[in-house]
């Protein structure tokens, strides 16, 4: 053990050793020439300046504020995720100093009294801002959204869909579909708290290492589309990174012999295959992924995403059709349509026609072959599918069963997207006769709602076109359900924006009241089994993600006094109501 004198002696030895080292360094320095000393001075100066730069500025050029300093913990930094003005809220909270209060300035902006204004990072440029709801009808839709969201958050948070009656959830793909599908709806409505909760979940919990099969089409339009849309509004890189990861996992679907993608894939193993129930993919599904993958290629400057989906469009373009009309099944191995498959603008056929037009618009009207295919298909619709009812002459679109053999007077609610698509085409310079067709189809779709005591349309309607009875339309018991679908409301919004006719707003309000009166339950909204009986609508205990992602979004846009709240001259809307910019130069 050391005594006190031993410690003193040891300290003296250490001090003496230090003095000798300092003397030796001083002597070596004097032995250097003036030139050598100057070089050392210059290197030291460069190192000091470089260090100061990287201490004060991060890798993206953002000034680092006090919360990055040693000894402090970042509490919250909000740089205007949702606001009407970039000045709105810059909130910086720092733990470790009681003087760092967040104060309200006269204009409502929150500022930190310990952080200089020049230290606060600027929001990204080219953000898209939306005003607060301005009409009573818009505000009613916002309240409906908040009611649905509250139930989802309480009983289904992080899961795909809410079951509001049993207070539980349903997982289809395990990807939080309701959250991702609703991001841009909340952003448009300026629901800041709800949006921030959703954004945080996506950041921390949306993980694509899911060892289960997912559908290429559904995941593309809902999840990839939702991430890309909210990225365009916010320029939040987190969303783009998630979208790119997802798209990379979906790409093996295109590794088929023909180039037509397989319908399903396991996101974890990245193994793709045809659906379990059939060797074929749905035609609408393989041709309704192009807007999303093309936009991702533009954002990432990587053509691989656009290349695979463009090849699909080109392959389908080369196939033989019935006056532009396509069967609803296509084989991924041989690249051919299934012989004698049904031709319809309803399920499995619908969005093929929609994306012919919208791809042409997205490309700033450069993809002429898609415009030509669209024009050909409208001609085929008029020749083969369009009929009129007896006795009132309502125009409807039926189906060709067994290829082109038998006409079936059946129209899915899904077909009610078509009036909006026809109107959009006419607005972009296609024949004006398309607008007349749109108006007549819109009236028929409205009647499928108005004829029901609930003022809600059935999933499928049949039409009397041969004078079998005195009713223009009728519903089979198995088709009387309503899934809270958006297609007719989508068309109402297109027609309202393009014509300014406020009758379309009134029609939408009647339907919204139907939802409120017959689908609203304590913890959200539910699909119903019977639109024909107000006393027993047979609730089905399911709130699909598209109710928040599409239905309420279209109602909100429809009820705005500003017809161009989401301008169709600047945006193309995917089939799940997610907006993308028109043209690569506008990304």
TrEMBL record:
Keywords: Calcium, Disulfide bond, Endoplasmic reticulum, Glycosidase, Hydrolase, Membrane, Metal-binding, Signal-anchor, Transmembrane, Transmembrane helix. Its cofactor is Ca(2+). The chain crosses the membrane at residues 39-56. Disulfide bonds join 416-445. It comes from Dendroctonus ponderosae. InterPro entries: 6hp_glycosidase-like_sf, Glyco_hydro_47, Glycosyl_Hydrolase_47, Seven-hairpin_glycosidases. It is found in: Endoplasmic reticulum membrane. It is a single-pass type II membrane protein. Belongs to the glycosyl hydrolase 47 family. GO terms for biological process: carbohydrate metabolic process; proteasomal protein catabolic process; response to endoplasmic reticulum stress. It is an enzyme of class 3 (hydrolase). Its EC number is 3.2.1.-. Ca(2+) binds at residue 575. This is alpha-1,2-Mannosidase. GO terms for cellular component: endoplasmic reticulum membrane.
